[in-house]
């Protein structure tokens, strides 16, 4: 009888606290562990495996789907303009030139030559575009010259009183005698006729033939 009593007392003293602790742990595990609501702190949702963001960009095209590779020729600005003038200054037809690698290349006025007159920072860093001074309002433009369009360049300078035709700046197709050549070809930063070299404020560090640019495409590639 005494042994049974001791057993009951032992179970009561040690078993009951174990049951109480197990109950409290169970309540926490099933009621609080995922939210920490027992402490008033809400846990952020955790995903055991990171979720990948769906790709929204199309897969890059390769091979034939990517289209033809555009290969440009390298030529100086003065030589490119000269080739265009020597070819008769065509407006839309392609003309040929020889690039710095001795390749025969083809170009057009709109795609390759016009930007030499209309884009800033092309002849040198900080360069103003030719059209800053030579623009469509010829009565106000310097030398009454419009270099913003093909028609304006062909019409020439000194178009006073809105004259449709002025002085030819392209030398009638003879590039090295033309006024334009004498203004943009500048050894040591000086024009060949002693006038202010163009574009304005062009430093002597710019090569005589102007900057080397990418223009046109090799004939052997464009014909394939």
Written account of the structure:
About 30% of the residues lie in helices and about 10% in strands. The protein has 7 helices and 5 strands; from the N terminus they run αβαββααααββα. It starts with a helix and ends with a helix. The strands form 2 sheets. A 3-stranded antiparallel sheet has the order 2-3-5. A two-stranded antiparallel ribbon has the order 1-4. The longest helix is centred in the first third of the chain and has 30 residues, at about 1-30. It folds into 2 domains: about 1-40; about 75-220, no CATH class. The relative contact order is 0.13. It has about 220 residues and is an alpha+beta fold. Residues about 30-55 have low confidence and may be disordered.
Task: Put the structure in a nutshell.
This protein is an alpha+beta fold.
Number of domains: 2
**Backbone shape:** globular
Give me the number of helical elements.
7
Structural class computed from helices and strand pairing: alpha+beta
What are the low-pLDDT stretches, counting only 5+ consecutive residues below 50?
32-57
């Amino acid at each position: 009888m005494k042994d049974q009593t001791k057993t009951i007392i032992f179970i009561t003293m040690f078993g009951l606290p174990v049951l109480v602790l197990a109950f409290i742990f169970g309540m926490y595990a099933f009621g609080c562990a995922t939210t920490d609501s027992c402490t008033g702190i809400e846990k952020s949702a955790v995903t055991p495996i990171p979720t990948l963001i769906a790709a929204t960009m199309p897969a890059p095209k390769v091979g034939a789907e990517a289209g033809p590779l555009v290969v440009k020729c390298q030529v100086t600005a003065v030589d490119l303009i000269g080739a265009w003038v020597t070819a008769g200054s065509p407006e839309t037809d392609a003309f040929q030139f020889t690039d710095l690698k001795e390749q025969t290349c083809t170009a057009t006025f709109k795609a390759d030559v016009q930007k030499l007159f209309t884009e800033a920072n092309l002849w040198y860093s900080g360069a103003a575009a030719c059209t800053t001074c030579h623009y469509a309002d010829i009565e106000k433009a310097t030398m009454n010259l419009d270099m913003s369009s093909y028609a304006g360049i062909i019409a020439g300078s000194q178009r006073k009183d809105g004259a449709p035709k002025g002085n030819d700046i392209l030398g009638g197709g003879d590039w090295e005698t033309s006024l334009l050549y004498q203004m943009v070809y500048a050894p040591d930063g000086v024009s060949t006729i002693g006038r202010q070299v163009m574009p304005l404020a062009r430093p002597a560090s710019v090569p005589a033939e102007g900057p080397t640019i990418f223009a046109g495409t090799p004939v052997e590639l464009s014909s394939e």
